[in-house]
Specification:
By secondary structure, this protein is α/β, with parallel strands linked by helices. The chain has one domain: Rossmann fold (3-Layer(aba) Sandwich), CATH 3.40.50.720. Strand 2, helix 3 and strand 3 form a beta-alpha-beta unit. It binds NADP nicotinamide-adenine-dinucleotide phosphate. NADP nicotinamide-adenine-dinucleotide phosphate binds next to helix 2.
Length: 288
Amino acid sequence: MIHNTIRIRFTSFTMLRMAINQNIRKLSSNTSCLIKCNRLEGKVAIVTASTEGIGFAIAKRLAQEGAKVMISSRKESNVKKAVDKLKSEGLQVAGTVCHVGKAEDRKNLFEKTKKDFGGLDILVSNAAISPAVGPVLESTEQIWDKIFDINVKCTFLLMKESLPLLKCSNSPSIIITSSIAGYQPFNLIGIYSISKTALLGLIKATADELANDGIRVNGIAPGIIKTKFSKALYESEEAHDIAVMSCSMKRLGMPDEIGGATAFLASDDASYITGEIIIISGGMKSRL
Ligand SMILES: NC(=O)c1ccc[n+]([C@@H]2O[C@H](COP(=O)([O-])OP(=O)(O)OC[C@H]3O[C@@H](n4cnc5c(N)ncnc54)[C@H](OP(=O)(O)O)[C@@H]3O)[C@@H](O)[C@H]2O)c1
């Protein structure tokens, strides 16, 4: 009985907070199209895994700020849909299929970007997978390899392969999508979380190495953002309540709320920032 009353009160409180937050968000998304922010005018960006969710939102924001953006993901139909959508908004984008785990696709991604847009200034490495749930030490070697291959090794390879183009840019930068789970592992997706912690290390190590070439390397660490990828964390009412309780702002994030921080890191406003990670989590705890 008491438990039910607390739950009803919590649900009403959460709903009220959500309504307020939704209105704030509506206001900010309405005004965002009015803001004339051209920080990325003249720059060229690649965003991997950019046909949906966070990658799509990042690509859109970079393009809204003036960048020419190469869209990519594994499925041609998704690439076409995303490119058509962004072009219909008057944004300068092109697209190509790129499964980040395929060397030939990555090669084509850089070649097409050079051919279509003349070079590269910004690489956003955003693709990741989390194909299994369960305790870390009950997982198989194959699952471990698959997650580390796509999430960590392919990020390293994309960075390495982007260098010939980035070294020709006047203000090159790399941004890697890590996760709040890289700071505090999520239950049952431990290996995914560990791979995201590894990316924090990759950012720090390479930022130091690439500073001599003028290439800045930074990261973003989203909290729980409403996308297909994170559905299990908010689909049921119970999961949603737990997720919402874990952040100070008492709501989940939306993909569009990731784009602004990424655009900032890619822009000259962040010209003295390297080796850093911006946590975009509505206040979820983020200590290693
Ligand atoms: N959502 C969250 O709460 C959250 C939180 C923290 C971090 N992140 C990170 O944010 C990034 C994007 O996640 P999301 O939530 O936006 O996912 P999402 O909405 O499910 O979108 C996934 C995107 O990745 C593409 N993709 C999947 N595997 C790929 C591969 N091997 N190569 C290239 N593209 C691939 C998909 O298109 P195709 O199917 O056409 O390939 C799709 O465009 C990931 O790095 C994830 O770890 C997400």
